[in-house]
Each structure stands twice: as structure tokens, then as C-alpha cells.
Amino acid sequence: MKRIIWVISGLNRRMMKLLFALALIAYIACKYSAVDLSIQEHGEMKIEQRIDEVSLLSQKYPPVKFLSEKDRKRILITGGAGFVGSHLTDKLMMDGHEVTVVDNFFTGRKRNVEHWIGHENFELINHDVVEPLYIEVDQIYHLASPASPPNYMYNPIKTLKTNTIGTLNMLGLAKRVGARLLLASTSEVYGDPEVHPQNEEYWGHVNPIGPRACYDEGKRVAETMCYAYMKQEGVEVRVARIFNTFGSRMHMNDGRVVSNFILQALQGEPLTVRVPSRLFILCPFPHLLGNPEEHTILEFARLIKSLVVSRSQIQFLPEAQDDPQRRRPDIRKAKMMLGWEPVVPLEEGLNKTIQYFSRELEHQANNQYIPKPKAARMKKGRPRHN
Ligand SMILES: O=c1ccn([C@@H]2O[C@H](COP(=O)(O)OP(=O)(O)O[C@H]3OC[C@@H](O)[C@H](O)[C@H]3O)[C@@H](O)[C@H]2O)c(=O)[nH]1
């Protein structure tokens, strides 16, 4: 009997152990399936949340016109995240086109086009035009290149490559897909002009080995390439020579005269005046584009100082090498053939730019964003021309 009791209690002990083990397994299984479930639920919630966010965001896009399939163009803007390029992006997006922005973000910034990110007509590609690009488009606006003297002189070889190889790549693309290409050229193709004002027929006066040559000659070759592709390959091209430009989305450290003066005036630093004359325009487009109103740099410094109501002093600096003495576009042809002329009065343009820079400084003070141009990669203390 004792033996039987022992066997039963032995069995019971084993059974107990077995039951305990099963209970433990069941508990763990339950727990994990609960965890799985909560991960799944959480995931679903996240997706829903994201859809909500996206639909919320989509209400925030600037209004876009509806274009029929026939009228809607697929447009590539190289340098589309830059100061001029991002305004062009806005215009073409709002007109209802499909816009692909290509930028290597050397001087361009994502934040200039961030209000379009996620829109079905918009695409942003981090790409350097020095490398070939294979996409299907109807039109190309080729703006990619650093444009301010300190930026393009920072890495002259890279500036040359961008304007020569980059332009060749874009013309090759235009030829392959049958797209029309507009080149954003510059008043700098005139160098230090001997003709004043400058018109489309003037060939310029450029020092081919001076510090500005990488940009001036780079753009001159780019123009030559455009017309060679037009004559030899039948590519439809347009060239716009843009004069000194300013406006919102210009980089605070751009280094051009207007951004320098506004920043200096806002920060109470001396306004650094270097040469006697020059003129300006706010956000332009085709042909010889600039404001035919001419002002000396000193007049400009005084005007900005008064608009900012700044106590900054004016400081005279020695002239920079090969700095063009005078520039003024003769816009008669642009007006006649394109109906184009500047529409934003100088003071209004300056006031808008001052407001933009004031906001940028506030952002900087709040540490929300520290604006600095992204430097090219350095190799032994020197910029690399990758
Ligand atoms: O702090 C400064 C900066 C510039 N300047 C002077 O202001 C004049 C304008 O110089 P910017 O640096 O603004 O630029 P530039 O006019 O030489 O070239 C610009 O205009 C034509 C565009 O197509 C080019 O992309 C752009 O480089 C120059 O004479 C320059 O010496 C100053 O007096 N003080």
C-alpha cells in the first residue's frame, strides 16, 4: 500500500512538474503573443498615424493648377534647391507640371523646397550633374552651379567641371529624350565689360586665367555647348544671362553684395564697400535679365543701411582682382521678344530680402537652424574636386 501511495505521490509529483511546465509554456506563449499583438497594433497605429500626417501635410501644399495630360510637362530643374532654382520650382509646380529637382546640396538646401516633399508631382534627387543622369523629361532647366564669387572660387576645378561636364551631360540627356534645355548663364560671361550697357551682341572681356575664370569661362563654354548641340544635333536650347540677383532663400553666407550688406546692417557690423558701380534685380528669368536701373555700391550700402535702420558704419575695402567695374543689362530685346522686364521695385525687393534675413537670424539665435554653406570635402586642407 505504502508502495502504491509512493507511486501515486511520485506520479503526482511528476504530474505536478508536467502541469507546472505546461502552465509556464502557456503563460510565456500568451505573453509573447500579447507582445506580438501589441507590436502589430502599434505598427498599424503608426501607419495610420503616418497616413493622417501625410493627409494633413497634403493640405499644406501650396495650391497647384490642374493640367491635362497633354499640357502637363515633366520638367527637370538642376540646382532646383538653390536660391533661384527653388523659386522656379514653385512657379512650375503651381502651374501644374511634374517637377524633378536635382541638386548636390553644395549651395542648395532641402529646406528651400521642403514644402513640396511628398507631393505627387514633385521629386527631389540628390545627384551631382557631373555624373550622367538617365531620366525621362520634356524640359530641362539647367541651373546647377555655385553662383556667388566666394562659392565658385572655393573649388574652381569643381566649378569648371559642373559647368562643362555637367552641361554636357544635361545636353546629352536633352538630345536623348528630345527635351528643350534652358541654360542659366550669367552677366559674368562679359567679364569686365568694355561696352556699357551690355547687350546680347557683345562678346565680353574675360581674363581666362584670372580668379573668376572658372565661372566666367565655364559659363561661356556652357553657352558654346548649347549652341553646338542646337546646330549639330537639333537640340532646342535657350540661354538666359542673369545679372546680379537677390531675394528670399538666398543663403546668408552667400557672399554677394546684397546678402553681405543686409547681414552686416542687421548685425551692426561695418558694410564692406569695394567698388564704384553695379545694379541688381529680384528673382529673374530669360534672355538678358537684370534691372537696367544702375546704382553705385556705395548708394546701395546707404540704402540698405537706411532700410534696416542700422547704426553700422561704411567701411571701404580694396577692390578685388578682376572685379567688373560696371554692369548694366540692355533689356530692350528681352522686353520686345519675351515681354519681360523687372516688376519688383528695388526697395520692395530689398525690404522682402531684409525680412527674410531677419527671420533667418532669429532661427539661428534659437538654434533651430545654423546656416552655413556645406563645404566641399577636404583633402589635406584643400577642397576636393570630385
Ligand atoms: O561685401 C561686398 C561684396 C561685394 N562687393 C562688390 O559688389 C559688387 C557685386 O559683387 P557680388 O559679389 O554681389 O557679385 P558679382 O556681381 O560680382 O557677380 C554676381 O553677379 C552676376 C551673377 O550672374 C553671378 O552669378 C554673381 O556672381 C562687386 O563689385 C563687389 O566687389 C562689395 O563692395 N562688398
UniProtKB/TrEMBL annotation:
A GO MF label: NAD+ binding
The UniProt keywords, alphabetically, are: Decarboxylase, Glycoprotein, Golgi apparatus, Lyase, Membrane, NAD, Signal-anchor, Transmembrane, Transmembrane helix
**Cofactor (UniProt):** NAD(+)
Record-level GO cellular component terms: Golgi cisterna membrane
Catalytic activity as recorded in UniProt: UDP-alpha-D-glucuronate + H(+) = UDP-alpha-D-xylose + CO2
Q: Where is the NAD-dependent epimerase/dehydratase domain?
A: 75-273
Report the coiled-coil segments. Answer: none
Q: Where is the composition biased (Basic residues)?
A: 374-386
Membrane topology type:
Single-pass type II membrane protein
Protein's pathway: Nucleotide-sugar biosynthesis; UDP-alpha-D-xylose biosynthesis; UDP-alpha-D-xylose from UDP-alpha-D-glucuronate: step 1/1
UniProt keyword annotation of NAD present: yes
GO BP annotation list: D-xylose metabolic process; UDP-D-xylose biosynthetic process
Pfam family of this protein, just one?
A: UXS1_N
Disordered: annotated segments: 367-386
Where in or outside the cell it occurs: the entry states:
Golgi apparatus, Golgi stack membrane
- Enzyme Commission (EC) number: 4.1.1.35
Any idea where the UDP-glucuronate decarboxylase N-terminal domain is? 2-54
Assigned protein family: Belongs to the NAD(P)-dependent epimerase/dehydratase family. UDP-glucuronic acid decarboxylase subfamily.
Official protein name in the record: UDP-glucuronic acid decarboxylase 1
- UniProt organism field: Myripristis murdjan (pinecone soldierfish)
